[in-house]
Amino acid sequence: MNDDDPSEDTVIAVERRLATLREEHQDLSDAVAALEERPQPDMLQIARLKRRKLALKDEIVRLEDQVTPDIIA
């Protein structure tokens, strides 16, 4: 194992965190969809939820990069 490889415990912790973030991201998607279906949706609240979704997505991608090994071609 080289220094760039995360330990097994670290990978497990990151996978758990990813699962939590993905669930929260899906919950926010559901909340946005529900708000958008209202006759007069609260656009400010929708914008806040969408910003939070984007932040979560960024963190998900960052964590996925940590656990995905680099492939040297």
Number of helices: 2
Number of E strands: 0
Radius of gyration: 17 Å
- Through-space gap between termini: 19 Å
Following the backbone from N to C, one meets helices and strands in this order, namely HH
Please outline the major beta sheet.
Answer: none
Globally, the shape reads elongated
Domains (count) = 1
What is the overall pLDDT average? 90
Flag low-confidence runs.
none
Estimate the strand proportion: under 5%
How helical, in percent, are the residues?
over 70%
Structural class: mainly alpha
InterPro entries: DUF465, DUF465_sf
Keywords: Coiled coil
Coiled coil: 11-66
Protein name: DUF465 domain-containing protein
Account of the protein in words:
With 73 residues, this protein is mainly α. It has one domain. 74% of the residues lie in helices and 0% in strands. The protein has 2 helices and no strands. α1 packs antiparallel against α2. InterPro entries: DUF465, DUF465_sf. Keywords: Coiled coil. This is DUF465 domain-containing protein. It comes from Caulobacter flavus. Pfam families: DUF465 (PF04325).
Question: Which helices and strands, and how do they pair?
Answer:
Layout: H1 8-36, H2 43-67
Summarize the structure in short.
With 73 residues, this protein is an all-alpha fold. Helix content is 74%, strand content 0%.
